[in-house]
Amino acid sequence: MKKLLKQISFVVAFASIVLINTHSHAKLQEVESSARVSSLPYYASADFTPHWFSPDSVELIDFHRVSDFTFIDQDAKHISQVDMQGKVYVASFFFTSCPGICPRMRSQLSKVQAKFMDDDKVSIISHSIQPNNDTVKVLRDYADENGVVSGKWHLVTGDRDSIYRVARNDYFANEDLGEYVSDKDFLHTENLVLVDTKRHIRGIYNGLNNTSVGHLMEDIKTLRSER
Fold this sequence. Notes:
Glutaredoxin, 2 domains, five-stranded mixed beta sheet, two-stranded antiparallel sheet, Thioredoxin-like_sf, disulfide bond
């Protein structure tokens, strides 16, 4: 009987230790997740070398920014840098008939949309790389079919050269980051670019990777608290 009681006591004690350790590990993961980074770097080139400045640094005066742009979204509204003023936004590139990576990227961006649905200072801009095919009507149908919320997530089309210019020169979406749709068309990249309220690039993320998109959402929170 005493032997049995000792065995029971040992099992209870072991189970308690496991429970405590499991709880502590989960708590540590929670803390690490909520405090992944306290500040984000700035990027100015296609090699995405990080530059660390304070938000009020004088070096940022002439630092790379996304240039002025004007495109048309799924609601036939002109979307420009003025509409993004004071907002944090995620930029991506896609086309509606894409059978490959686009559905997976759309699924990941849907998580971002849902996470920040009630925050009007966070937006998403997805640029069509086949603007001649992706008319406003096509984008509207695509938005309706895939839960893209007007005003929060802008699917934009416009002048082909303007889209390619902003993609290559401003967001650094080039052949080193993606793959060509065809020899005559623009590359297709799975990367998501995070832009702050001053149009500085603050992060790049793999739009097909759950962990990377999780980091993106945490980094959006960081930028939202930046002063």
